[in-house]
Amino acid sequence: MHKSYYTILCAVLPGLFSCMLPSCESPQGKDGSHLLSADWPVYGGNKSGNRYSHLNQINLNNVHRLQVAWIYESEPKDKKPVHSEMECQPIVVQGILYATSPQLKLFALNAADGKRIWEFDPFKNSEPKITTSRGVVYWEDGEDKRILFSAGSTLYAVNAITGVPVKEFGENGKIDLHEGLSDQFDANKSYVAATTPGTIYKNILVTGSAVSEGGDAAPGYIRGYDIVSGKLKWVFHPVPQPGESGYETWPKDAYKKIGAANNWSGLTIDDKRGTVYLGTGSPAADFYGGARTGMNLYSDCILALDATTGKLKWYYQTIHHDLWDRDIPCPPNLATILFNGKKRDVVVAATKDGLVYMLDRDSGLSLFPVEEKKVPTDGLPGEYPWPTQKFPVKPLPFSNQVFREDDITHISPASHAYVKKIFDSTVHSDKFLPPGEKAALLYGYSGGAEWGGNAIDSDGILYQNANNAIWRVQMESRRMQELRFSSYGQGLYSVQCAACHRPDKKGNGVEIPGLLQIGSRLGETEINQVIQNGRRRMPAFPQLTPGERKAIVQYLLNDHNALNSKIEKSRSTQKKAEFPYQPAYHAKIWEKLKDPDGYPANNPPWGTLSAIDLKTGDYRWQVPLGEYPELTKKGTPVTGTENYGGPVVTDGGLLFIAATRDEKIRAFDKITGKIVWEFPLPAAGFASTITYMVNGKQYVVVAAGGGRGLKSGNSYIAFALP
């Protein structure tokens, strides 16, 4: 194509040649760099979720020259929010960058210089309901250009040019995500949000939701909305209702009380097939499934749905009757792979327990062998664990599977002795040990793949960052909990809060804060608001009555006795309902196991980055991702760190990723896994990195929001060549 003609087309049809898909070609300059502009128009870079860019202006030869091009502070410097974080992956459309702040303000920037064009605050005139926001959605039809994003339980449509709500969408530009959830049980009081953006097929927005993980979990319906009017077009029930396929894999009335099995991690779309692909999570309640005997379709599944109707095309279940909260934590990645000499359109899904499934996009059949093996079935009373689970033959797991004595940390003799004592008092022989009244050490809750996803380049190489984190889980009967309660408030705390913040209220010192001194940080009213509305990764608890919230607050503030008799009397007169249901067992201990110095209890690497050839299922390389500088100074080999957020891979031979606790962004040689550039961020970049080109210049951008026990930030930082 002649360059001048190409330029005219791009001017007439903005974004047509954004060149983000592997099949897209764009002209190159004499230096091999791409000309004009290349957008990052959707979450994951393109509808297939490849996190792959053809751009090569920044490459192995010049990446060492990268420097900061601009910084945007998304919140006022003098009002930096406390304990905030950002997981937002921006999008870039026609030279405009769209993203959200820690306080969920939506904004538009000039993508070339970071100057703000407009800002929309969803909580300007209301009480903030701060939830995680991993990105936004862009849609246009002629002059109608919209950004759709969620804040709390509300989905907004905002004019992409002006930042003003689109009045004809829903009610004055917004819809309540509780809509359509209360037909079978009262879900309007439950926590519902959309922390990861949906995807668009024609004029339909398909979205999942984030919900609670206990007996009060709302149903995890997948929904399709008319993007113009906001009207609900279709619903898919992950816990099937009578007459729907999969209903027989649950108890008769499970759909009336079992929630979750939700898609919280995002979706991808195949426009040609009209199919949306997604992964679902575990059903409620985590760690005990006595009220949901059976295989539990369609929890923990890779699903293919008709994007127009929501009808099921096929499913592939990765965990049967999940007792370990091993969700599919990131959107499936769609790719075309040369497999056994033939091009195959595939779905690639990575799991919390470190497995990769590569499925045919039309049939859902695995291209690599997968074995179904017997697993332990000695569960708690009333529990019937499924007798077999899946074990892919290829690719081999990219994260740890079973915690053995040889895996105990050797960072120091004291650390080893501390963890060895815990190891000897727990069970740890199998990754599928059903949680029980004796503490178990298990991988796969917060480990393996995370929500940041992965990248696949045009050569069919999968790039996956991962965690190796061991968790301690111990269950306790409701009766034993009641015997331990010294107050009504403590009882509520034990059921609603202790699984994360621990029974001793100490948290884990990193992602989950301790509550022992919460009165020195927050007042009674503020604590009450956080419980009611949620904050960041902590869900809201709208199902609790004002009296129940007050009892928890007063227990936290050590002033709870006054309400006990009054509230217990009121509670005893309440009619028992099917929802929320009360599991017979709850987690007494549910925590990441650390050594006395706060390092992971297992041997390094604690965070990794892998390159897997999907044509063969073999690894090209695996390297540690991140480091603890104080350990490196002592001569300890690079350990890797806990990491959150995803990569982007480019035709410049590079993979960019932040994600690590050492607060750096790095570029790796995608062929060798060698670090070729790194830069310290003002706060950890627990978000996915993007790249795009505006006016002939390529940029790399990441949100540096910190959090998870580290200092907070609110900066979006762009890098470019000088």
Please characterize this protein's 3D structure.
Strand 18 (267-270) and strand 19 (275-279) form a beta hairpin. Residues 1-35 and 560-576 have low confidence and may be disordered. The protein is globular. The chain is 11% helix and 29% strand. It starts with a helix and ends with a strand. With 722 residues, it is mainly β. The protein has a domain at 474-592: Cytochrome c-like domain (Cytochrome Bc1 Complex, Chain D, domain 2).
Based on the structure given, which CATH architecture of the domain at 474-592 is correct?
Answer: Orthogonal Bundle
Please identify the structural class as seen in this structure.
mainly beta
Q: Strand share of the residues?
A: 25-35%
What is the overall silhouette? Answer: globular
Could you give the distance between the termini?
30 Å
Largest sheet: 5 strands, mixed
Averaging pLDDT over every residue, what do you get?
88
Work out the number of β strands.
41
Return Rg in Å.
25 Å
CATH topology descriptor of the domain at 474-592: Cytochrome Bc1 Complex, Chain D, domain 2
CATH class call of the domain at 474-592: Mainly Alpha
Alpha plus pi helix count: 9
Give the CATH H-level superfamily of the domain at 474-592: Cytochrome c-like domain
Detail the poorly predicted runs: 1-35, 560-576
**What is the spatial order of strands in the main beta sheet?**
1-35-36-37-38
Helix content: 10-25%
